[in-house]
Amino acid sequence: MEAQGSSAKAEERWQGLGVSDGFATGQVLRIHTGARSVYRATLTKEESEEEINRFREAVEETRKRLLEIRERAGREIGAEQAYIFDAHLLMLEDRSLVGAAENYIRQEGTNAEWAVRVVTDRLLIAYAQIKDDYLRERSSDVEDVTRRLLTTLGGERSLKQGLTEDSVIVAEELLPSSIAELDFARVRALISDAGGWTSHAAIIARGLGIPAIVGVRDLHRRSRTGDSIAVDAKKGEVVLHPLTVTLNEFKAKEPHRVFSNVAVEAGATEAKPARTLDGVEIALRANVELRAEYEGVRRYGAQGIGLYRSEFLWSLHNGIPSEDEQTEAYAEVVRLAGGDGATIRLFDLGGDKAGLPEAEVERNPALGLRAIRFCLQHEEVLRRQIRACLRAAATEKSVPLKIVLPMVSDITDVRRARRIIAEECERLKIAETKCGEIKTGAMIEVPSAVFTAHALAREVDFFSLGTNDLVQYILAVDRGNDNVAAWFRTLHPAVLRSIDYTLTAARVHSIPVVVCGEMASSPAYAFVLVGLGARDLSMTPSAIPRVRHMIANIDAESARRIAEECLRCDTADDAEELIRQRLSEGWPHLFSPESLPTPKSADKI
Ligand code: PEP
Ligand code: MG
Questions:
Q1: Fewest beta carbons less than 10 Å away: which of 18, 238, 346, 509?
Q2: Within a domain: 597
């Protein structure tokens, strides 16, 4: 028998979808994102006693977190709103919940998560039968406390405290709120049971060069924190309990990663547009969400920040960031961007995004109270963010600051937001607070925004084309669901025609468009975008050099002809095949076979 890398457990292999290349070896750090299924585990008598201790620790930890949140809520939204957390704190002392869960663990010999689920389900049934409306509605408090307890039990604590130098994060689903908490210098790889190419975890992992695999089904359930693990993200392969020979094989390929959160001025590339062989200039900007990505902005020569995903601030601040915290964060983005300017996207909460208060998790979040809808519904949150943007815009006169409204689906969204922007600007002026000029744009990410692009273009200063969501909503394919990854087709003719229509509307009305979805960061797709007439691309900073290189070696006229051919295709297969052929024949030195869309096998679709 071959020697084992870590313990006597048998080597097990999983196959998933690699979304950020690279090899890694290390130890599993399991994290739990709270929302998904809870499994039952059977324990011995001694184990049950240990489990009760673990449960008590989780209750105490949850209590501490709730106290922090209550204090913060009291400070920021007023004591009358903070009382809700008192109810949650009381529940953590309630014997019908905590005592009953302990009894269940002891009597039934189950894990704490299962006991919490069973006990709270019983409580919820009891609440549902109560006649009094007020009391019946308290069931949402029970659900909220349950979710918090399950999250703590799942090891959210260990996310901050348990990271070792060789942690491989294993999760059911990597939510942006968990990602934002990670110290990337200590993360070797990210693996999740669910997810897709354009999930935010995947986008960030690619940007930082951390290997990542999604769609690994039940790895989370089968692994334990501390297990030895090896990862080949290019092949989408995960090996749990690798044999020594396997471990050595992976280690030999694992690069020595030097990662720092410190901005490096030296070695920065000049921030200038890319230029095609026939002289067409294409602006290349940076998408950023976390500080860890800032150093790449200068290093890779981005022309400012084309998209700042502000919702990540919610995770970092454990809820709504204050006006001063936001002003400071946006002023930092302004400084980072320099003369080319920065575009702050208003909170794009909901969907798979960060920070939504747990009570507001919805059944169908992608179609729910997301993005600008959330902002308009929570007007105080919106007004605070707008004030912070206006104040940040005044910090560096030479740096233009823009605001972009996420997931606009109706012109009324724009009108309501613009009215609030004007009112807040007026209020700041009356209060003699310095306030900068701000341009306002709309994210074009849903079919209704595309179909009304001409009218929308008359109401905004610019468009930001979010191709990640555009593909999701045009094709009705959940971008974070690996089960439907084969249907997520960026070159689908319906997607290309939507992009073409939007770019044309913007041209007719003389407003700029920045394309800021993941499509812009892949040279083959960026080629198609240039061909469709895009002249401004924003992407994860580390992608800029390869896109710049591609642009410098093609001519825009050929790209235009090929994009036109794509627009005439009937199917995504045809468009992909066309791109494979044209690019590999025309520019074999620029487009290796693996950089082109892979042919989909007939049995997959
Ligand atoms: C997009 O949808 O393409 C986009 C840029 O925004 P996000 O990926 O944050 O949804
Ligand atoms: Mg989007």
A1: 509
A2: no
Q: Residue whose CA is closest, atom 1 of ligand 1?
A: 466
Give the pair of three-digit tokens for residue 359: 């009570």
Alpha carbons 422 and 48: distance in angstroms, whole number: 60
Rounded Cα distance, 447 and 172, in Å: 30
Lowest model confidence (mean pLDDT) among 34-48, 304-318, 504-518, 543-557: 34-48
If phi > 0 it is left, if psi is from -120 to 50 it is alpha, else beta; for residue 318 that is: left
Final residue belonging to a domain, choices 158, 183, 217: 158
Regarding whether 471 and 453 lie in a shared domain, the answer is yes
What are the angstrom distances between the C-alpha of 300 and each of 220, 269, 284, 304, 398?
35, 5, 10, 11, 22
Domain C-terminal end among 123, 143, 158: 158
* Ligand 1 contact via 517 beta carbon (within 6 Å): yes
For residue 72, what is the domain's CATH number? 1.10.274.10
Question: CB atoms < 10 A from the CB of 79, how many?
Answer: 10
Q: 3-class secondary structure for 254-283? A: CCCCCCCCCCCCCCCCCCCCEECCCCCEEE
**Element holding 164 (H helix, E strand):** none
Output the six-digit token pair for 20: 């950020």
Phi/psi at 17 (nearest 5 deg)? -105, 115
User: Nearest residue CA, atom 10 of ligand 1?
Assistant: 469
Look up the pTM and report it. Answer: 0.77
Residues of the domain holding 107: 45-158
* DSSP per residue, 384-421: HHHHHHHHHHTT-TTS-EEEEETT--SHHHHHHHHHHH
Which ligand approaches the C-alpha of residue 312 most closely?
1
CB of 289 closer than 6 A to ligand 1? no
pLDDT tens-place string over residues 513-530? 999 999 999 999 999 999
* Whether the CB of 479 sits within 6 Å of ligand 1: no
Say yes or no: 166 and 150 in one domain.
Answer: no
Listed residue (156, 68, 59) closest to 116, CA to CA: 59
Helix/strand/coil for 177 = helix
What is the H or E stretch that residue 159 is in? helix 156-161
